[in-house]
Amino acid sequence: MKLLSYYIIILLPFPFLYWCAVHNSSLFFFISFCIYVLIYRPFVDGLRLVDLGLLKKSESWKMFIASPYYQLKYFKELYFGI
């Protein structure tokens, strides 16, 4: 996964989140935001780390349990490339 495509993928849900915040109830926005933070981002970050060879595919489940740890540990690789 190229760095540009990674940024596009992580920013893709923001128009939907904005729409939820403006036009729907705050509960719907909160649920959507939690799905983004707890499911979508760990999944995408795990795919990027597997693609970079920093995590094995069988270890990608760790992103769902210890996502902040791995996001900080591999911050440079995730957001700036290698």
Overview of the molecule:
77% of the residues lie in helices and 0% in strands. With 82 residues, it is an all-alpha fold. The protein contains six helices and no strands. It has helices at 3-11, 14-23, 26-52, 62-65, 67-73, 75-80.
As residue ranges, the low-confidence spans are none
Output the radius of gyration: 14 Å
Supply the number of helical segments: 6
Spatial shape: globular
In N-to-C order, the SSE pattern is HHHHHH
Largest sheet: none
Q: From the helix content, strand content and strand pairing, which structural class follows?
A: mainly alpha
Strand content: under 5%
How many beta-strand segments? 0
What's the N-to-C terminus distance? 12 Å
Which percent bin holds the helix content?
over 70%
Arithmetic mean of pLDDT: 88
What brief labels describe this structure?
77% helix, 6 helices, mainly alpha, 82 residues, 0% strand
Give a concise summary:
Helix content is 77%, strand content 0%. With 82 residues, it is an all-alpha fold.
Write the layout of secondary structure elements.
Elements (H helix, E strand, L loop, with lengths): L2 H9 L2 H10 L2 H27 L9 H4 L1 H7 L1 H6 L2
Helix pairs in contact: 2-3
